[in-house]
Specification:
heterotrimer; A alpha+beta; B alpha/beta; C mainly alpha; B: seven-stranded mixed β-sheet; 29 strands; C: elongated; disordered C terminus
C-alpha cells in the first residue's frame, strides 16, 4: 500500500553543503582525565581516544555543518575539566 | 550511496585520528593509546538499571532505566511493579530519548530589546526576584502568579505553594491540572467528601465487566488496557466502549455503543431508572451508607469574565429521586442520545446483575465537560445504588493524564483554593499550613483568587502582571488560545517560563530558564491509584539546567524567605518530602516514608501501619473506617456518600446552520500532551508526524474529501487548515470531526471554546461547533 | 399411601437440598473470584519469565527439516535497524492497511507463526509474545524519515555474537547476552526462516534451550530481573 500523501512531513530541510570532520588534542586538568573522557564521550558528535600513559586525549568530531561545528567547539571549550584544546586537522566533506 | 558516503566519513575520521596521534607522538614519544576508551570508563560492560516512574501519563508505569557512562541508554518495564508488571507502551520504552534532542535549553535566556540574550543562572534568577518585588510593590501581591502542572514533582509543587501562599501571601497558584483533572476532584468531593479513587488497579484482576465512559483507553492508557485484554483472555470479561467516536478501543471492545455529545448525562440517569425499576437497588447499602441531594441547575457556562458560581445542596429523599428519574426512561433518552433503548437496558443489566463485579473507567471525556461534575456524580450514583463500590472489582475509577496530577496538584493542592491539607477558606487548615511552613497565619489569604482560565483572563486584563510558568505549554493547550496569547504579549506583563525545549510558550517569555527534567534530578510522582513513586537522579542535567524545585528555592531566598527555604542542596528533596508528609499525618491520608518509596515501586496512601490501603471506605481494608460498619464514607460528616440528582442540560454551543459539525479534540497514542517531548523522539515523530482532522466516511464523501486533502475548519473563534484523515486512526460519527492537539504548527485550540464546568472551572475541549470545507 | 408419602418426602428433601446448593452457589458467586492478597509485593505477572520458553515446541522439528532459504535471510543488521536501542520494541517497517484494528485480527495473521510473504519478499518475523494483543501499543509504523528536531541520543552497541563471543570456555555453548523479558520464547527469534542468520540456531529440535545456554550472570543479578 502506498504511504498516503498526508503522511509526508511538513518538515523542510535547510540546505547543507559541508560536513566537517576535525581532530583535536585535549589536555584535562590535573586528575580529571576520567571526568573529561566521560564529558566528551557524552557528546553525540564526538569520539574519544585517550592515551594510556599520559594525560592527553584525542577527540574526533563529526558534525552536520559549519554552524553545528562552531557550536560543538564552544561546547567542548566550556567543559570545566578541560585545560587546553588544540586542533590538529580538519576535513570538509561535500554533501550530496 | 548511503553506505559509500558513510564509509568515506569513517575513513576521514580515521585519517583525522592518525594525524592527531602523530602530533601527540611528536610531543610525547613514549605515548600509548587505548583502542577502547569505554574500558577506561567502566569496569563492567553491563548496564546499571535504576527504577523510575514513567515521565508521561498518569498510569504511572514503573520503568527500569539502563545507565551507561552517565547517559540513559535503554528502558524496560519493571517486572516487580504492580502497575505495569513488566510491560510499557511505545512512549515509555523510548521515554529517555526525550532528554537528548539537539535543541535542549542549556542556558538562561533573557529578552532584551526584543532579542533573547544568554545570561548566567544567577543573573536570571536575580532578575526574576527583582521583577516579582517590583510588581508586588506597584500592583500588589495578587499581581504575581505561578502556573504549574501535573508534571511538577511533589517537591516542585510543594515549594511553589509554600512560596506563593505561605510567604508572598497570594492564592495566585494554579496549574494545567485545572484543564485536566479539576472535575475529577469536584466529582469526588461532592459525592464522597475526599478526593481520589477508592479502589486501585488491582480491581482489574477482579472485575467481570468494564464500562469505558468516553475513554479511548487503548491509546491513552495503553498499559492498563493491555491488562483488561489480558483478563479477557484469562477469564472472559466483558469490555463496553461507550463513546462518541469509533477508536482502537471500540475495535477491541466486546460492544461499542456510540452516544451524541453531552447526552451521557441522560444515559447515566436512564441506567439508574432501569436499576430502580427492576429492583436491582442494593437497599441495605443505600439505606445505611447513602444520602440523597439535589443541587442548583441552569448554572451557565462561565463564558464571561468574573463569572462566579457556588453550588447549593438541597436535601431530598429516595422517593423524590425516583420521581426525578421517571423523566429518563430508556425510550425517551434513546431519542435524545442516539443510544437504543435496548443498549441502555443492556448496560443497566450489567450494572444491576448482583453476580457481576463492574468497573467504570473515564478520563477526559467526563472531565472536560461543561457538566463534568454532574456526569461523575451520576456514574457514582450507579455504583452507589447497586452497592458496587470500594470493594475488589467494584470500582468507579477516574484515570489521570499526567504523571503527578494526583501526587502533586491534587495532593499538594496547587490550586487557588487549596492547601496541602484542606482549603484556604478553612481557618484550621490555614493554621496547620502556617505552623508547618513557619509563617504567620495572617500570611495565608482566606480568599481564593483565580482559577486557570480566569488567571489568563486576569493577565489579559492586567490584573495579573507577572506569571511564572513551569513544566507546561499553555500557548498550545489553552482553549480559545488567541485571546490568552495576545494577553500574555501585552506590554507591562512579565512572563517567566521554565522548560527543557523551545515551545510556543517560551516564545512569549521574558525570561526562559533551562530546567532539569525527570531523572536529571530527584523527585516523586503520584499516579491515578494513589501510588507515590520515587526516582533518584540518574544523569547530569545539561549545561546550567536546574530543577524547578531549586529554581523556586533560589528565587524564594532572593525574596528574603531564607528562614522558610532552609533546605540543603544535597538533601533538599528528602527534607521537603519529610516536611510535606507532616500535612498528611493522619490515618486518612498518611504518606509512606521516603525509605519505603526508595525500596519498592511506590506505595499507596493512606499508608498506615506499614501497609498501603487498596480499598478506601471499606472497613475490611481501610483502617480509617471507624463507624464499626462494613463501609464508612468518612469524607462526609455523617459518614454517608451522596447520590446526586443531576439533570441533563445542553452544552453551551451546539452545531447550527453556520457551524454544522461537532469538534472534539484529544490525544493520540504516540504523542503526549503538546508534543514538546514526544515529537523530539525520532520513532514517535516518524509514526505520527503532524496533526490532522478525522472525518466520517459519509461526510468526506459528500464534501469530496480524501485522506491527505487540505481541509479548513472554522469556528466562531478562529480557523485552521489541516490535512484530512478519513477512516484512519479514529472514525468520528457523522457530522462530527476530531483533531489531536499535539501539533504546535496546527493549533486546534485557536478554535475551541473557553466554556467551563461552573463547579470545577475546567474547560470543555470536547464540544464546540465548526464548519468544514475543502480548500 | 406410605409409599406415596415417601415419594413426596423424598422430593421435598431433594427440593430443599437443591435450594440449599443453589443458595450456596449464589452466595459464593457474590464473593471475589480471587481473594485479594495483602502486602505491597503481590504482583501477579502479565507474563511469567520462562513459561514462554517452550511455546513454539511443536514447530521445532519442522524448523530442523526446513532448508535454508539463502536469498531471503535476515541479518542482525536488519534486526537492529528498526530498534532505538538493543532491547527496544521494533517499529513496523511496512505500511499497515487498518489504522484502528487490534492485533488478533491483523498483525498476528502473519506474525504469530511467520511464513513467506510475497508482498514484502521476506519471511514474517515471529512474535515471542502473541498473547499481548494491543500490538501497536509498543510497535508503531514509521511514516516519514525526517525528524522534528535532531537528536543526540547515543545508541549503545548490541551484544557481540559469533564464535566465542559469549562462551565461558573455548567451544562451550554461548550464554545468553541479552535480557529475556518480553522475549522468553527463544525459537521466535533464533529458529526458522525469519531468524537473523548470525543468531539462527543449528539445532532447533533441541527445545530445552536453557539446558545449555544460560543468561549472562551480570544480566541476572540486578534488581527486578527474572
Amino acid at each position: 500500500m502506498p504511504i498516503p500523501y498526508y503522511c509526508l512531513s511538513n518538515f523542510v530541510h535547510t540546505a547543507r553543503f559541508f560536513m566537517p570532520i576535525k581532530s583535536y588534542l585535549a589536555h584535562p586538568h590535573k586528575g580529571k582525565k576520567v571526568e573529561l573522557i566521560r564529558a566528551i564521550s557524552n557528546i553525540a558528535q564526538c569520539e574519544v581516544i585517550p592515551a594510556k600513559n599520559r594525560d592527553i586525549l584525542i577527540v574526533i568530531t563529526d558534525t552536520e555543518n559549519k554552524t553545528a561545528d562552531d557550536e560543538l567547539r564552544e561546547r567542548l571549550e566550556s567543559i570545566k575539566t578541560l585545560q587546553l584544546l588544540v586542533m590538529i586537522s580538519g576535513f570538509d566533506i561535500p554533501k550530496k | 550511496m548511503y553506505n559509500s558516503s558513510t564509509d568515506r566519513r569513517n575513513f576521514m575520521k580515521k585519517m583525522a585520528a592518525v594525524s592527531a596521534m602523530t602530533a601527540a607522538i611528536a610531543l610525547f614519544p613514549d605515548i600509548l593509546f587505548s583502542a577502547e576508551p569505554e574500558k577506561l570508563l567502566s569496569e563492567s560492560k553491563g548496564l546499571d538499571w535504576k527504577r523510575s516512574p514513567c515521565r508521561f501519563c498518569g498510569v504511572g508505569c514503573s520503568l527500569l532505566i539502563g545507565i551507561e557512562n552517565g547517559r540513559a541508554v535503554a528502558v524496560r518495564g519493571d517486572p516487580k511493579s504492580p502497575v505495569n508488571r513488566g510491560l510499557c507502551c511505545v512512549k515509555g520504552y523510548h521515554s529517555v530519548l526525550s532528554m537528548y534532542a539537539a535543541d535542549r535549553l542549556t542556558k538562561p535566556l533573557v529578552k532584551k530589546n526584543g532579542e533573547y540574550v544568554e545570561t548566567s543562572m544567577a543573573e536570571a534568577l536575580d532578575r526574576i526576584a527583582f521583577k516579582m518585588k517590583q510588581t508586588i510593590e506597584t500592583h500588589g501581591k495578587d499581581a504575581v502568579s505561578i502556573y504549574g502542572s501535573g508534571q511538577w514533582t511533589i517537591p516542585d509543587g510543594y515549594v511553589a505553594s509554600k512560596l506563593f501562599k505561605g510567604c508572598i501571601g497570594t492564592n495566585n497558584i494554579e496549574c494545567n491540572a485545572r484543564l485536566c483533572m479539576a472535575t475529577a476532584v469536584t466529582g469526588f468531593l461532592t459525592s464522597f467528601g475526599l478526593d481520589e479513587p477508592m479502589g486501585c488497579y488491582e480491581d482489574i484482576d477482579h472485575a467481570d465487566v468494564f464500562v469505558l465512559w468516553g475513554n479511548n483507553m487503548a491509546e491513552m492508557h495503553p498499559v492498563l488496557f493491555s491488562r483488561l485484554l489480558d483478563q479477557r483472555l484469562r477469564r472472559g470479561v466483558t469490555i463496553i466502549d461507550f463513546a462518541t467516536r469509533t477508536t482502537r478501543t471500540s475495535m477491541a471492545a466486546d460492544k461499542s455503543i456510540l452516544f451524541k455529545p453531552q447526552t451521557d448525562l441522560a444515559v447515566a440517569n436512564a441506567i439508574c431508572y432501569e436499576i430502580v425499576k427492576n429492583n436491582w437497588v442494593n437497599e441495605v447499602f443505600v439505606d445505611r451508607y447513602c444520602n440523597f441531594r439535589k443541587g442548583l441547575t441552569q448554572m451557565g457556562y462561565g463564558l464571561e469574565d468574573h463569572y462566579r458560581f457556588t453550588d447549593k445542596a438541597e436535601k431530598i429523599d429516595f422517593e423524590a429521586y425516583k420521581k426525578f428519574l421517571a423523566n429518563y426512561t430508556p425510550e425517551k433518552v434513546a431519542k435524545l442520545s442516539g443510544v437504543s433503548a435496548k443498549d441502555i437496558e443492556y448496560m443497566a443489566a450489567l450494572y444491576g446483575d448482583p453476580n457481576k463485579r463492574v468497573m467504570s473507567f473515564w478520563c477526559m471525556g467526563m472531565n472536560q465537560h461543561t457538566r463534568g461534575t454532574w456526569i461523575q456524580n451520576l456514574v457514582y450514583n450507579i455504583h452507589l445504588l447497586t452497592g458496587k463500590i470500594s470493594a475488589p472489582g467494584n470500582s468507579p475509577f477516574s484515570l489521570t493524564g499526567q504523571p503527578s496530577a494526583c501526587g502533586t496538584t491534587r495532593e499538594v493542592g496547587t490550586f487557588t483554593h487549596r492547601l496541602p491539607h484542606g482549603v484556604v477558606t478553612d481557618e484550621g487548615d490555614r493554621a496547620l499550613a502556617a505552623k508547618i511552613w513557619n509563617v504567620p497565619v495572617e500570611n495565608i489569604s482566606p480568599q481564593p483568587t483565580y482559577h486557570a482560565v480566569e488567571m489568563f483572563r486576569a493577565l489579559d486584563r492586567g490584573d495579573i502582571r507577572f506569571m511564572w510558568i513551569q513544566v507546561t505549554n499553555p500557548m498550545v493547550t489553552m482553549p480559545k488560545l488567541k485571546r490568552y496569547r495576545n494577553g500574555s504579549e501585552k506590554t507591562g506583563r512579565f512572563i517567566v517560563v521554565s522548560d527543557i525545549y523551545p515551545t510556543p510558550t517560551t516564545d512569549v517569555a521574558d525570561v526562559i530558564l533551562p530546567a532539569a527534567m525527570w531523572i536529571e534530578r530527584e523527585g516523586m510522582y503520584g499516579n491515578s491509584e494513589r501510588r507515590t513513586q520515587y526516582f533518584q537522579q540518574m544523569v547530569e542535567p545539561p549545561g546550567e539546567a536546574m530543577s524547578d524545585t531549586w529554581q523556586l528555592i533560589e528565587v524564594a531566598r532572593r525574596l528574603g524567605f531564607k528562614k522558610q527555604f532552609y533546605y540543603e542542596k544535597e538533601t533538599h528533596i528528602e527534607e521537603i518530602y519529610a516536611e510535606y508528609r507532616r500535612h498528611h499525618d493522619n490515618e486518612q491520608h498518611n504518606m509512606a516514608p521516603l525509605h519505603i518509596l526508595r525500596s519498592q515501586p511506590g506505595a499507596m496512601w493512606p499508608y498506615v501501619g506499614g501497609k498501603s490501603t487498596k480499598w478506601r471506605y471499606n472497613s475490611k481494608y481501610d483502617p480509617a473506617c471507624t463507624n464499626g460498619e462494613a463501609f464508612h464514607f468518612y469524607g462526609k460528616p455523617d459518614g454517608k456518600a451522596i447520590i446526586w440528582q443531576r439533570p441533563y442540560e445542553p452544552p453551551p454551543e451546539s452545531p447550527d446552520e453556520a457551524y454544522p459539525y461537532w469538534l472534539c479534540t484529544g490525544r493520540v497514542l504516540e504523542h503526549w500532551h503538546s508534543g514538546s517531548m514526544t515529537r523530539r523522539i525520532p520513532i514517535l515523530h516518524r509514526a505520527m508526524p503532524h496533526g490532522y482532522v478525522e472525518l466520517n466516511i459519509a461526510d468526506a464523501k459528500r464534501l469530496q474529501i480524501q485522506t491527505g486533502d487540505k481541509v479548513k475548519l472554522t469556528s466562531r473563534r478562529g480557523e485552521i487548515i489541516l490535512p484530512a484523515a478519513v477512516n484512519q486512526r479514529g472514525l468520528p460519527a457523522p457530522m462530527q470531526v476530531f483533531v489531536p492537539f499535539f501539533d504546535e504548527n496546527m493549533l486546534i485550540n485557536e478554535l475551541t471554546l473557553d466554556a467551563f464546568d461552573p463547579i470545577s472551572k475546567q474547560p470543555d475541549y470536547k464540544k464546540c461547533a465548526v464548519s468544514v470545507e475543502k480548500v | 399411601m406410605k409409599k406415596r408419602l415417601g415419594i413426596i418426602s423424598l422430593f421435598t428433601l431433594l427440593f430443599v437440598v437443591f435450594i440449599a446448593i443453589w443458595d450456596y452457589s449464589y452466595r459464593t458467586g457474590l464473593e471475589c473470584a480471587a481473594t485479594p492478597e495483602g502486602g505491597d509485593d503481590y504482583v501477579p505477572m502479565v507474563m511469567s519469565s520462562e513459561k514462554g520458553v517452550f511455546r513454539r515446541d511443536r514447530y521445532a522439528l519442522d524448523y530442523a527439516r526446513m532448508p535454508i532459504d539463502e536469498n531471503h535471510q535476515r541479518s542482525l543488521k536488519d534486526y537492529y535497524k528498526n530498534r532505538a536501542f538493543p532491547g527496544a520494541p521494533p517499529s513496523i517497517p511496512h505500511p499497515v492497511s487498518d489504522a484502528r484494528s487490534m492485533g488478533g485480527k491483523d498483525c498476528l495473521q502473519c506474525h504469530e507463526n511467520g511464513g513467506f510473504v510475497a508482498k514484502w519478499d521476506a519471511y514474517a518475523p515471529v512474535t515471542p509474545h502473541p498473547e499481548l494483543l494491543s500490538c501497536r501499543q509498543c510497535h508503531v509504523v514509521q511514516k516519514v524519515r525526517a525528524l522534528f528536531r535532531a537528536t543526540n541520543f547515543k545508541k549503545i552497541p548490541a551484544p557481540a555474537v559469533g564464535a566465542g563471543a559469549n562462551s565461558a570456555l573455548r567451544g562451550s555453548p554461548p550464554g545468553i547476552p541479552h535480557r529475556i523479558q518480553m522475549r522468553e520464547n527463544c525459537s521466535a527469534c533464533h529458529a526458522g526462516p525469519s531468524a537473523p542468520r548470525e543468531i539462527r540456531t543449528s539445532h532447533p529440535q533441541r527445545i530445552n534451550c536453557m539446558q545449555c545456554h544460560v543468561p549472562n550472570k551480570k544480566l541476572a543479578a540486578d534488581i527486578g530481573g527474572f
